[in-house]
Amino acid sequence: MRIGAYTQIQQVYNTTKPAKVSKTQKKGFSDALSISGAGKDMQTAKAALSETPDIRTEIVNDIKAQIDAGTYGVSGDSFADKLLEKFNQGSLAL
């Protein structure tokens, strides 16, 4: 057995010394959130809208009272004008 051959093999595989492992410094990453001015305005509007009731009961109750009393009337011309206006805006499809 040749000892010289063994040292040559050690050099090829570099098994004489374990590789030094350097410690890596952990950098602390943290998530950050920044909201633009438009986003803040949208949040404010959304909060205000969520606090607003879907039905304005004071108006609905007033109209119901007029219907029950038989005093609620709608002008045919006014209704037709508003109907045509909505149709021309494209929000009303037939």
Structure description:
This protein has 94 residues and is an all-alpha fold. The protein has a domain at 55-94. The chain contains 4 helices and no strands.
Number of strands: 0
Shape verdict: rod-shaped
Strand content: under 5%
Mean pLDDT comes to: 80
Biggest pleated-sheet summary: none
- Contiguous low-pLDDT stretches (5 residues minimum) are none
Order of helices and strands: HHHH
Structural class assignment: mainly alpha
Helix content: 55-70%
Instruction: Quote the distance from N terminus to C terminus.
Output: 100 Å
> Any idea what the radius of gyration is?
40 Å
Query: How many helices in DSSP terms?
Result: 4
Name the features:
single chain; 94 residues; mainly alpha; 4 helices; 56% helix; rod-shaped
Map the helices and strands.
Blueprint: H1 3-13, H2 37-51, H3 57-69, H4 76-89
Give a nutshell description of this structure:
With 94 residues, the protein is mostly helical. It contains 4 helices and no strands.
